[in-house]
Amino acid sequence: MRRLRFNHAFVLLMLASAISAFALPPNWTDGGRAQLQGLFAPVARPTRALATTIYGRVHHEEPIDRGTATGRRRPDADILLENDQLRLQLTSLQTQLDALKEINADRASLGDIRPLCVPVSVMGSDPGARESLSLSGANVRLLQMGQPVLHARGLVGRIARAGLTGAQVLLITDRESRLQADFKLYRNDASGKITMTRPPLLPLVKGRGRGKMVIDNITMKQKDDAGLMINDTVALNDNRFPVNLQGYVIGKITGIAPAARNPLFAEILIDPGVNLETLREVMVFVSPDERAGSKASP
Amino acid sequence: MRFLAYILLGYLAVGTQVGLAAYAQVNGTAPNVVLMVAVFIALQADTESGLLACFMLGLMTDLVSQQPMGLYALSFALAGLFASSASKLAYKGHPLTHFFLVLVGGVFTAIVLWLYGALRLDSGTRVPMLTLLGGALYSALLAPVLIGVLHRLRGVFGFSTGRRRQRARDDG
User: Fold this and answer.
1) At what angle do helices B33-44 and B3-20 cross, to 10 degrees?
2) What's the DSSP call for residue A35?
3) pLDDT at residue B39 above 90?
4) Less packed terminus of chain A by CB within 10 Å, N or C?
5) What DSSP string runs through B97-163?
6) Across the interface, do A128 and B113 touch by the CB < 8 Å criterion?
7) Residue of B nearest to A19 (CA)
C-alpha cells in the first residue's frame, strides 16, 4: 500500500516537471529559481577559481590582431602608426561628441560607458548544453531582466533572470540569442589611412552554440557587393539595447561560405574573440533610472 | 540513508558542475557530474529514496540552468528509474555497471533535451543530438572514476536496501 502511494506521488512529480518543462512559459518559473540559484556559489566559486588557475597554465591564447586579414600580429611599427591615427580620430570624435552633448542634455551619459556599468563576478556556467553564466555577489541586487552584459572586448549577453541571490546571463552564443547588428569594415585607403565603412545591410546575428554565432540572412551577392572579408567586425545595432551600446563589438567574422540549405545565401560565422563561458567577471549595464529604482526600493 | 550526507553530496555535485562545466569541455560537450551522482545514489539506495534523490538532483540542476524548470528533474528521474531497476541485477561496484548506467542516463537526458528543442518548433534553439550524446559518452567515460570513489565512501551515506529495511521492520 505504501509502495503504491509512493508510485503515485512519484508519477505526479514527473508529470508536474514535464508540464513545467514543456507547457508552462519559462518566465513563470524563472522568478522563483532566480532567488535560489546563488546558493551554490560557496562551492561553485572556489571550483571555478581552481579550474581557471589550471586552465590558465595549460591553455595559452594567441593574441588576435584585428587589423589584418589573417589575424597574425603585425610589426610593432605598423601598430604604433595605427595607434597614432586612431588617437587622432578619437580626439576628433570626442570633440564632436562633446558638442552634441551640449546640444542635447538628455544624452549627457553618452560616451564612456564604464561609469554606467557595475562589475559582477561569475559563479559558473550552464551545467547543461546551453550557453549561459550564473552571476552572484554584492552587486546582484542591482540586476534586472534584460540588462546588457559586457566585458572588455565586447558584448557578453543579457540578463535572463535575476533574483536576490543570483542572476543568469543568456550568452550571445546561445542558440536562443538573436541580435540586430552592423558590419564595420576597416580598410586602408590609398594614402594608408584607416577608414571605416558600414555597408547598408541588416544582419541578424544568431547564437550557434559552442562559442560561435552565425549570420544567415545576407545573400552571397550582398556579401560580395559589401566586400565582406574574414576578420571584419560585427557590431551591435539593436533598438532593444541602450543607445550608449550601439556599435559595441559583438565579434569578428571567422568564416564565409554559401549556406548548405540555400546556396544563394551566405553563412557568416562570427567568433566573440574570447571564451565567454570562462569569464571570471562581467560588467552589467545599469541605467541611471534602474539605479535610482533599486536605491528607492527597500 | 543519511539525508544530511546526501544533501551535502548533491549540493557539492551541482556546485562543482556549475564551476567546472566551462573548463572540462571537449569539442563543446561537458561531463555531467550531477548525473553521475544521481546514478550512484539510485544504484546504492533503496528504490524510493533513490528515485526521490534523482528527482531532487535534477531540480537542483534546473535552478542553475538556462533550460526551463523541470527538464533536468524529469531527465534524472527517468535515469534514476532505469538505474534503480538495474541495481537489482547488476554488480554495484563494477566499473562497467557505472559506465553503462551513466551512458543510458545520459541518453535519457539527451532525448528529453532534444525533445524539448524539437517541440519548440525553432530549429535554431535545438541543441544537436550529436552534442547531447557526446556529453552522455563523456560522462560515462568518467563515471567509473567518480562513482568508484563514491562507492568506496558509501559507508558515509548509510545506504539501506529495501530488503534490509524490510528485515528491520520485521525485527521491530
Assistant:
1) 160
2) H
3) yes
4) C
5) HHHHHHHHHHHHHHHHHHHHHHHTT-GGGPPPHHHHHHHHHHHHHHHHHHHHHHHHTGGGGT---HH
6) yes
7) B70
Interchain CB distance below 8 Å, B70 and A129: no
Q: CA angle at residue B73 from A279 to B144, to 5 degrees?
A: 75
Q: Among the residues of A23-75, which ranges form H helices?
A: 26-36, 41-58
Q: Give me the phi and psi of B18, to 5 degrees please.
A: -65, -40
* Alpha helix segments (H runs only) across chain A: 2-22, 26-36, 41-58, 76-103, 220-226, 288-296
Look up residue A60 and give its amino acid.
H
Torsion of CA A167, A173, A178, A182, to 10 degrees: 120
Provide the 8-state DSSP code for A69: S
Tell me the chain B residues in contact with residue A275 when contact means C-beta distances shorter than 8 Å: 22
Residue A288 burial by Cβ neighbours in a 10 Å radius (0-12, 13-18, 19+): exposed
pLDDT of res. A17: 92
ipTM of the complex as predicted: 0.84
Strand partners, A212: A209
* Grid coordinates belonging to A84: 597614432
Which of A15-19, A98-102, A285-289 has the highest mean predicted lDDT (pLDDT)? A15-19
The answer to whether residue A280 scores a pLDDT higher than 80 is: yes
Q: What one-character DSSP code corresponds to residue B88?
A: T
For chain B, the straight-line distance linking the first and the last C-alpha, in angstroms and rounded, comes to: 18
Chain A CB within 8 Å of residue B53 CB: no
A156-166 per-position pLDDT tens digit: 999 998 888 88
Interface of A with B in 78-117 (CB under 8 A): none
pLDDT of A216 strictly over 50:
yes
Question: Model-level pTM?
Answer: 0.82
Q: Which residues pair with A180 in a beta bridge?
A: A204
Instruction: Identify the three-state secondary structure at position A254.
Output: strand
Chain A: closest CA distance from residue B101 (Å): 19
pLDDT tens-digit series, residues A9-64: 999 999 999 998 888 887 788 777 878 888 888 888 899 889 888 888 887 766 66
